[in-house]
Model the fold of this input.
Amino acid sequence: MSLKRRDRTTAIGVGALPSARRRSALLATDLQDLSFLRRAAPALIAMGIVSLADFLSGQDRYLAPLMVVVPSVASLTLKPVELLWVCLLGFFALLGLSNYDQVVDLNDGRFLYGAMVSYVALTVLGAGVAELRMRRAAAFAAVASVAEAAQRALLRQPPPTVGPLRLAVRYVSAADAGRIGGDLYSVLDTPYGVRVLVGDVRGKGLGAVQTAAVVLGAFREAAYDEDKLPNVAGRIEASVQRHVPDGEFTTALFAGFDRPGQVELMHLGHVPPIKVGRDGTVEVLESPEPWVPLGLGKLAAGEPGVMRVPFGVDDVLVLCTDGVIEARHHRTGEFYPLAERVGPLVRDASRSLAELESAVGRIYADLLLHTGGELGDDALLLLLSRTDPDRD
Done:
C-alpha cells in the first residue's frame, strides 16, 4: 500500500509556517490535492447512472430530467469553472437522451424545456455553492495554519545536541479537524544538567496550545532555578493552578541527566519511557511511584517520586505521547505495540546522531504501516542518547 497520498501528517519544525504548508492545508481541506478526474468522478458517475437508467428503461420512459443531480453533486468537489465544463457535458447528455426518447413529440416539447431550464438553473446555483465552499475552506485552512504556526513557535525545536545528549524528534500533527493538539516537549541544558520534559495536554485546539504554553513557560524558568525535579514540577503545578481552568490537566514525564551513566525520571501520569540497549534489548521504565498529572496536584498529598536508572553511552531513551501507543491498526483496531517493535528499530542507534535520526524515522514509518498511513491523534517521538567523547 502506498503511504504517500494517505499520510497527511507533517513534522513540526521551527519558525513561521511555510507558504507551501499553508497551500497544502488548503488543498487537503477542500480536496484539491486530488486530481481533477478523481474529484469529477462522483458527478460523472451520476451522469452515467442516469444515462444508463434512461436507456435501459426504453423510449417509453423519460428519465433524462434526473440529470439535474449532476450540478448538485459536482458542487461538492469541483471548482466553479470545472463544474461548468462537467455540467456542459451533462447538458449534452440530457439533449441526447431527450432525442433518444423523442420528447420533442410529447406535449410540444414542454418536458424537454422544463428539464433544460431546471438543469441550467441548478448549474448556476451549483457554481455559486462551489465558490462559497472554496472560500469557507480557505478561511478554515488559514485559521488552522496560523494555529499550527503558533504551535511551532511555542515548541522551539532544540538543536540535535544539547549538553552531553544527542536527540532526534518526530512530532506530527494529525489530519483531523482539530489539526493541532497539546503534545509538548522541551530539552534544556541547565546548571543542574540537561532536563527534559515531555507532556500531553488533555484536549485539542487553541485551548490545548494555551495550556501547553503555560506548562512550557513554567518549565523553562523552573528548570534553571530549582535543583530537584520535584521542585520543578511543583513550580509548574502552581503555574497551572493559577492560569489553567479547573479540570484541565497535562500528563508529563521529566528526565534529568545530572550524573554520568544515569538518568533521573519522574512520572506524572504519562507514558513510561523505554530504554533500548545497543543490542536491541528493551526495558520499559515503569515508575514504582507514579504521580497525578499536572493540574491535579491538589488531589494528592506529598510530592512526586523520582527514580534513577542506569543510562550509558550504548543506550537510547525513547519518549513518546499516547498518540503513538494508542494509534490503532487499520484493520484489527489494536494499539501500536511500541515496546514490542522498538528494539530492532532502535538497535545501534546510539552510535551517532545520523543513526539516531534514522531510528526515529524507522519508528515513525512503522507506526504509519500499523495505522494504514494516517494518525488519528498528534504524536511525539523523542529519542535521546549520550555522546561518547571517545567515539565522537
